[in-house]
Here is the input.
Amino acid sequence: MGKLYHKDRLGMNKTPNPLKVTEVVLRDAHQSLLATRMKTEDMLPIAEKLDAVGFFSLEAWGGATFDTCIRFLNEDPWERARQLKKKIPNTPLQMLLRGQNCVGYRHYADDIVERFVKQSYDVGIEIFRIFDALNDLRNIEVAVKTAKKCGGIVEGCISYTVSPLHNIELYIKMAKDLVNLGSDILCIKDMAGLLTPQVTTPLIRELKKTIKIPIHLHTHSTTGLAGMNIQCAIDEGLDMVDTAISTLSMGTSHYATECVVAALKGTPRDTGLDLEALEEIANYFKEVRKSYARFESNFVGVDINILKSQIPGGMISNMENQLRDQNALDKLDEVLEEVPRVRKDLGYPPLVTPTSQIVGSQATLNILTGERYKIITKETRECVLGKYGKLPGEIDPELLEKVAKDQKVIDCRPADLLVPEWDTIVEEAGDAAKNDEDRLTYAMFPKVALKFFETRGKPYTEPESPAPQAQPAKAPPPAPSAPAAAPAGGPAVYTVTVNGRPYSVQVGTGAGAPAPVAAPQPAAAPAPAAAPAPSSNGSNKAVTSPLPGSVFALKCKVGDQVNEGDTVMILESMKMETEVHTPHSGTVNSILVQEGANVQTGDELIHIA
Here is the structure.
């Protein structure tokens, strides 16, 4: 990317400076409203028209899209970027990069970060919006340097949050540090829509006085304040803003693109974008949205309570889906109340991936188990121990004592403790990975990637009907019909009627059988608030599942000697890892589940003799 193009694209050679618009419909809009489920096949038909509008950039990659592509859509995320760039040659594609986390949920060694950024640039990403969830700028240094070395434009981020520790003075200091680090643009990343006009005006004013690089505002509409904040920012000289095409805007998404374009028409900040062209794009996505109705968030209007929970837009729809999968959607309000308590316990981290998932998942477990920190996820433990970076404030002493015990809380850049990973990744991925893109995919999500490699290229279909809604509290449970004939020792098939709709349910009959699978969506019985007491089978004592999830890794084998408290298995739930500890000492007599199996609360996992 040449320097003249670079400056012209940033608007540094233009007077007056029209407001530039980044359209987020290909990434954050559907991540916020539709649990990130939009498929590439629904993006490509409109891509050329998006390219012709004249946007500053199109955000199309990164964030949860990478995970969702391989976990749910059976799509190659690298190929998505490549196909989009082919259809969008004139408008820069922009991605969201989680610094040292890349697009995953842990810190990766520097060699992985460097390879990931370079490969992203090679498939068509030109603008890298790089942030750290804790605003620990040590965690974005390698990503920033690599992106600039490749020739990309770097948007260094302030992850905006509200707490007793965060104020305008702190954000001004961060802005200076981001400039010194090499940022071409400063992004204010207001992921939960927490800005207010009273903060936006002085914040933008002071930033414009302090730094010379363009300022880009990313904000969500969850709290209903986005429009006012955007106008306040424009009045103070904002250079760029994120918006979403109207038919995928508002709610937990972003302010509508057309509203900003219309409001500035004929003013010195006129965007120059054509409303008629935008109308055609809006009509297209209006139809596309109908295909993803089952993933719609219930947060479609304004929820001022988000000013308390501070949950970002992209997290809400995913949290709803996670609770729905565990038949605990009725617990959502309790979880939302628990989130700020967990956040305070962890020293007020901003809530953005991965800390939003860490805090949100821990809050969910606190509610589902009926006891705060009865189960602590691996990611919560590592966050407390400093392995995600420096937390803004003090950690709750009781939580610190429970997690740390005899472990030391680190204070260095977490990646400094990591050895190069690439050679190990290549060896582990083996022949399942066809190229370096596959190896990087494996590095981000090993278990999910291996499953994706097996199914890649095979037809993918979503269930056509929406998931059944939760039964009213007083409604009797649905009565199953007699099971259909099934092979001896094999699964039985039942027909269950829920809200007047029949669903076919396959139930395994043997030990370690998969969790019930219903068509069109799971319809398992609700999980109890806490795991039942371990049962015994003759001389055997059972280790049971403390929560719904899938078996991520086995940490023992038949014949092993284990002691009470040993980690015998790791479960994955809500994209977080949770250790399962045995309450018994003895010999592992049998393992009832395999890696990848789905389990419910109370399911027997291991027998100890």
Q: What stands out?
A: The first strand starts at residue 20 and ends at 23. The CA atoms of residues 378 and 585 lie 23 Å apart.
